Amino acid sequence: MNEDELLARLRAVDPALARRAPAPDIDRLLETVMATTDVHTQTSQPSRWQPRLLAAAAAGLIATGGFITWQATHTTASHPSAAPLALTVQHTDEATRCAAPTVDILRSNTTAFEGTVTSVSGGKVTFRVTHRYRGDDLSGGVTMKQSMRLEDLTFAPGERYLVVARKGAVKPCGGTVGAEPDMRRLYRQAFESER
Amino acid sequence: MRTDSRVESLQKQEHARSRERRYEALVRVVARPLHRYLLRRTHLNQVDDVLAETMLVLWRRLDDIPGMPAESAPVADQVLPWCYGVARGCLANTRRAERRRLRLVERLTHMASPSPPPAHANDHEDLYAAMGLLGEVDREVVLLWGWEELSPRAIAEVTGLSPNAVSIRLHRAKKKLAAALERKNGTPVGHKADEGRSNR
């Protein structure tokens, strides 16, 4: 038996070919890891809590049999048929400098989510919602019409943002920001503590 | 002073974003091969959990991954061996935990049932028997060569052995497998297992 024959025998029993398992959902995997590992981006110093947080995150995933823990009640995957929610950036004449968002500012909104921008075209930004904090079904995605720019915020395809709106209007200083770990924590503090 | 802290905050945010982008590029390159690696070595119902754990470790150790570029997308061949090594470690941890759990269940029920053979085991009984003759490390070396199609150098990175040790183990293991299969099938021994392929 030569090397090629041996290789052919091994490949014939390759479980990855025999098992018809679906390919991993990479987007969901990414979102789960991002949502559970904010702490690691905040400090370069090893923390005594880090292994525990990591273990807790992994245990949470294991206990629920996959990647669905964080998204189970918020995911878009199971209801792809809903119509997109249309938001509009509220126009103000004032040249505003925004104060840093607070829990109270965030809570004054009726819609809150984290989403990835899928397209920016003609002043309209389209989001795929990766985590819903507050509001109705967002599984159909969200569109946002920009009549004016939000302070310090440029929407770019592929980037993640945390978005809040009140009755369909996105306020210039309402707390819509890039999805940074510290802002995610603030959103969680604002919306997840009330669950 | 306030401007300094704002600049610092913006720099931190940019760093965090850049790290997320690098990680996403990595995951898009390695997730599927790692998923296949785990499919080949553990129960279907454990694959997703071990993959998630592997990904958490990769996020934490993003800056330690050999071959991980600072800006551009990583090249699979350069980053995968190290990532396979992480998956291997996570799998070993899961197996240890599983063994502890099974020992406990066994003690509780006084029953030990052998795990069922794969559905197509009968068709390849001789190969499974031959693989059973190899030690655990040699078996993993052969499978990394046969299934993951890795070179001895890459296998060394996965297993922590030296490339030289891998080459020796791989050569011996292939010879042993071929001899066992030939004995079983009545093929004349002497048709060498290391013939017919380029050196990889």
From TrEMBL, chain A:
Origin superkingdom = Bacteria
The protein in question is named Uncharacterized protein
TrEMBL record, chain B:
User: What does the organism's lineage look like at the top?
Assistant: Bacteria, Bacillati, Actinomycetota, Actinomycetes, Kitasatosporales
State one molecular function term (GO). Answer: sigma factor activity
Family assignment? Belongs to the sigma-70 factor family. ECF subfamily.
Enumerate the Pfam families for this protein. Answer: Sigma70_r4_2
Q: Which GO terms describe its biological process?
A: DNA-templated transcription initiation
Locate the RNA polymerase sigma factor 70 region 4 type domain: which residues?
125-177
Cleaved signal peptide residues:
none
* SUPFAM superfamilies the UniProt entry points to: Sigma2 domain of RNA polymerase sigma factors, Sigma3 and sigma4 domains of RNA polymerase sigma factors
Q: Mind telling me what this protein is named? A: RNA polymerase sigma factor 70 region 4 type 2 domain-containing protein
User: Which InterPro entries has this protein been placed in?
Assistant: RNA_pol_sigma-70-like, RNA_pol_sigma-70_dom, RNA_pol_sigma70_r4_t2, RNA_pol_sigma_r2, RNA_pol_sigma_r3/r4-like, WH-like_DNA-bd_sf
| Keyword line | DNA-binding, Sigma factor, Transcription, Transcription regulation
